[in-house]
Specification:
Blueprint lengths: L10 E3 L2 E3 L3 E8 L8 H14 L4 E8 L21 H15 L3 E7 L13 E4 L3 E2 L5 E4 L2 H21 L3 E5 L5 H6 L14 H4 L1 H14 L4 E7 L10 H11 L5 E5 L23 H8 L6 E4 L5 H9 L5 E4 L1 H5 L3 H6 L25 H7 L13 H4 L8 E5 L3 H12 L3 E6 L18 H16 L3 E4 L5 H7 L3 E4 L3 E3 L11 E2 L2 H4 L7 E5 L3 H12 L3 E5 L11 H12 L2 E4 L3 E5 L3 E5 L5 E5 L2 E4 L3 E3 L1 H15 L4 E3 L9 H14 L2
Parallel strand pairs: 3-4, 3-13, 4-5, 5-9, 6-8, 9-10, 10-11, 11-12, 12-13, 14-15, 14-17, 15-16, 17-28, 19-26, 20-21, 20-26, 21-22
Antiparallel strand pairs: 1-2, 7-8, 18-27, 23-24, 24-25
Helix pairs in contact: 1-2, 2-3, 3-6, 7-8, 14-15, 14-21
């Protein structure tokens, strides 16, 4: 019996029994099934979530028609034809999901006035008629159009039932069609479908009622809502709760999200590391108080103890996990086995979803996807992943940062004898700054997780050690992985010796004064400056380019800049020319000089790969050991992000057969 008693208690949902309270939130469009490459992403993710112990697995946004409901140029599905090729592609995946005891659902949606100008789409429809800024005509829906859309939902639901789905999620949030009618921000009608909430809810309720009557009681209907619209003039929780009460006769589950897709970060739809975990809990609790059907809570949940608390305290009945199951699809199984300390925590960095994908080529989408904390996710070479080692090897890993730890753990788990040498007295490398950074708590947990994984395995760790030919002769490695990292770039600016390196502020915070001047507005400079602002410092960032944090993932940058706007002063278009202990002099593009005064000057002007060190080590290894395999991974190849470090460490270890 797991200590997470509420999390693993079965629950009745309609006529179905769910084995636990963990649901895989909708992610990856159902139409991916028809697109080579993306079909791999969809099938792998959905089956992994079911195998990982979830009670329900939900395929993501899937349009109910491909003329007015879709916003992506994906191959259309003929829902009226059960012989459509999509049927045979879906059936085996759904059967596999259900073989693990999970319910299988798919999210049906209609984007309404938010259609994209893609082939086959000539106009949009919604509560109001107008012409969009891009020239797209949007028609105010009449009752004939409403019936047509309701029929499309029914036809799509019947197709999905035939494919084997246990039910559908009807999307009534995130600014899509049903939400456009519900919100007084977008619905200004003066007829029976506008004005009061009762009128605004009329069309969404018609959709729900029509689908319920067509599909019967044994078919699960889950409804997704935005508890808070989080937009000026938008819908609030009290109205959402009232609508949910109206919808209760037709639905089996109410799934509480937040925000709108067209402003996903600032509205909280995809929560950032600058927002609280479980950010929708209060909205879910308010809805749960007025309905008698189970309520599902989604939003930034990455810890089973927190999930248990949310359910036990009455905030919700189920928790839904999206990006967390990309980070670790075994979340449920590990939690049930009381192995919560071995769960990869989602750090909400947006590597898996850097931004809306409209207009992005399919081949580029495949290159975009990745997971910072899970190197096996979006790894398309299954033969490579499933190739066993031929015999155990002696593997030497040089460097105890993320790349080195990932390499050591993977090599050990593969059956090799692993020695890891680290020149300092602890593992973690550059990520040790997360021990004190206010915003990097989850990244810190990830670093600590890897330290534990190394320490829990029969990996021989040698601290305060640098490799020598004598050590190589003693260890006799069959393969070596070099992961010696990078170091800060020290620019040739007069007076640079008066400034601190950005990462040094975490080790010696007592040296940082009240008024801070940060030279460099890249990701490191911005995030370090934000941390210091949270500490109560007055921070001014001085950046040569016209924009800051240009090297961050696009969605992360939105959240970062929003947080910075309240706490940090940013000066762009300025090149630093001189530094003293208390001043920074810079010139703008017109050659005009500017002087800034402060107590402490810090610089963050990029990192330089330790390629020279890596090449010297490689030469020594080959001179001493002969032609054995030597891999260089992570920042010593080129300065990059945690994702590249982990992925390269993993790949190198997997390559040793």
């Amino acid at each position: 019996m797991s200590k997470f008693r509420h999390l693993f208690e079965p629950m009745q949902v309609g006529t179905h029994t769910y084995k636990n309270r963990i649901i895989a939130a909708p992610i990856y469009c159902g139409t991916f099934i028809n697109i080579p490459g993306l079909d791999f992403v969809l099938k792998h993710a959905m089956v992994a979530r079911a195998k990982g112990g979830c009670a329900q697995v939900t395929f993501g946004e899937t349009a109910v028609d491909f003329v007015g409901a879709s916003r992506e140029p994906f191959p259309p599905i003929n829902y009226e034809d059960f012989n459509d090729p999509t049927m045979d592609k879906l059936k085996p995946v759904i059967a596999q999901i259900k073989s693990y005891g999970a319910k299988a659902l798919i999210e049906l949606s209609h984007c309404g006035e938010s259609v994209e100008p893609i082939p086959g789409v000539e106009y949009g429809m919604g509560p109001m008629g107008y012409t969009r800024e891009d020239g797209m005509k949007v028609y105010a829906m009449d009752e004939k159009m409403m019936k047509m859309v309701a029929d499309h939902f029914v036809t799509a639901a019947k197709f999905m039932k035939e494919a084997g789905f246990d039910g559908v999620m009807i999307h009534a949030g995130h600014g899509w069609l049903l939400h456009q009618f519900l919100s007084s921000r977008t619905n200004k009608r003066t007829d029976a479908y506008g004005g009061s909430l009762k009128n605004r809810a009329r069309f969404p309720l018609y959709i729900l009622k029509t689908v319920r009557e067509a599909m019967g009681r044994d078919f699960i209907i889950e409804m997704r809502v935005s508890g808070e619209e989080c937009m000026e003039g938008g819908m609030h929780t009290d109205e959402t709760a009232q609508f949910c009460k109206m919808a209760e006769p037709y639905v089996d589950l109410i799934h509480v999200s937040v925000g709108v897709y067209r402003n996903p970060i600032l509205s909280g739809e995809f929560s950032s590391m600058y927002q609280p975990h479980g950010l929708n809990a209060d909205a879910a609790e308010a809805i749960k108080k007025v309905v008698n059907v189970p309520v599902v809570l989604v939003g930034g949940i990455n810890d089973p103890a927190f999930a248990e608390e949310l359910i036990a305290s009455g905030k919700c009945d189920f928790i839904a996990l999206g990006r967390q199951l990309t980070a670790d699809p075994e979340f449920a199984n590990k939690a049930q086995a009381d192995r919560e300390d071995d769960i990869n925590p989602c750090i909400r960095c947006y590597k898996c979803f850097p931004g809306p994908l409209e207009g992005v080529a399919i081949t580029d989408i495949l290159n975009i996807y990745g997971c910072t904390v899970n190197p096996t996710e979006f790894f398309y070479d299954e033969e490579f992943l499933n190739t066993p080692i031929k015999s155990p090897k002696n593997v030497l890993v040089i460097g105890g940062g993320i790349a080195g730890m990932e390499a050591a753990v993977t090599a050990c788990d593969r059956g090799h004898n692993v020695t890891l040498v680290e020149k300092s007295g602890k593992l973690g490398g550059l990520l040790n700054f997360t021990d004190t950074d206010h915003y990097k708590i989850d990244l810190g947990k990830f670093k600590q997780l890897y330290v534990r994984r190394v320490n829990e395995r029969p990996i021989h760790v040698m601290y305060h050690t640098e490799p020598t030919s004598e050590l190589l002769n003693e260890l006799k490695p069959d393969a070596v992985i070099i992961a010696v990292g990078s170091h800060p770039i020290v620019p040739a600016i007069p007076g640079i010796e008066n400034a601190m390196k950005a990462l040094d502020v975490y080790d010696t915070p007592e040296k940082v004064g009240k008024n801070v001047l940060m030279i460099g507005g890249g990701l490191v400079g911005c995030e370090t400056g934000l941390h210091l602002a949270k500490e109560g410092k007055n921070v001014t960032i001085i950046e040569m380019a016209d924009a800051v944090a240009a090297d961050s993932y696009p969605m992360h940058r939105i959240g970062l800049l929003d947080e910075m706007s309240r706490m940090v002063t940013v000066k762009t278009g300025l090149k630093c020319t001189n530094i003293t202990a208390s001043t920074v002099t810079a010139v703008d593009k017109d050659g005009a000089g500017h002087t800034f005064e402060g107590d402490t000057v810090i610089f963050a002007l990029g990192m330089k790969a330790c390629t020279g060190t890596a090449e010297a080590l490689k030469s020594m290894i080959q001179e001493t050991m002969g032609d054995i395999p030597v891999y260089t991974v992570g920042d010593c190849v080129r300065a990059s992000k945690v994702y590249e470090a982990g992925r390269e460490g993993f790949t190198a270890a997997m390559s040793i057969l």
